[in-house]
Amino acid sequence: MVAVEELMVPKADLIIALTSTPLQDIARQLLAGRVGACPVLNDQAEPIGMVTQTDLVRAGFAGNTSCTAGDVMEGVLVMVRGTDTRQHVAATMAEHSIHHVLVTDTAGRLVGLVSALDVVNSLVTHG
């Protein structure tokens, strides 16, 4: 069985925002990194939300450059552990109709992010 930690993007490689991060900055970073989402952390570095490319579109980002991550982030987080299986994260994504899931340690600290594309890539490379 393939564990989530084998297919996730580690925290050190993620684009991370604070609630005060302007959407313009997030959009630039998502485009440059060719990724679809970034976690939003509080001052204690705990995950409190996520901003996705869909959130940017829904916010009417093109005409509203004064918005911040806190204005548009999805505050209901779905999280898994690194030790969970690929099957578990895929089922979690399907159950919640989402494409990105945060990976946390047992204390709830962010350790990574897994996307639907990461799951598909793992299926192709690991079977």
In a nutshell, what does this entry contain?
The chain has 127 residues and is of the alpha/beta class. It is built from six helices and seven strands. The model has no long low-confidence stretch (mean pLDDT 90).
Question: How does this model look, in words?
Answer:
By secondary structure, this protein is α/β, with parallel strands linked by helices. The protein is 37% helix and 23% strand. The protein has a four-stranded mixed beta sheet with strand order 1-7-6-5. It has a three-stranded mixed beta sheet with strand order 2-3-4. It starts with a helix and ends with a helix. The model has no long low-confidence stretch (mean pLDDT 90).
Structural class: alpha/beta
Order of helices and strands: HEEHEEHHEHEEH
* Unreliable stretches covering 5 or more consecutive residues: none
Percentage of β-strand residues: 15-25%
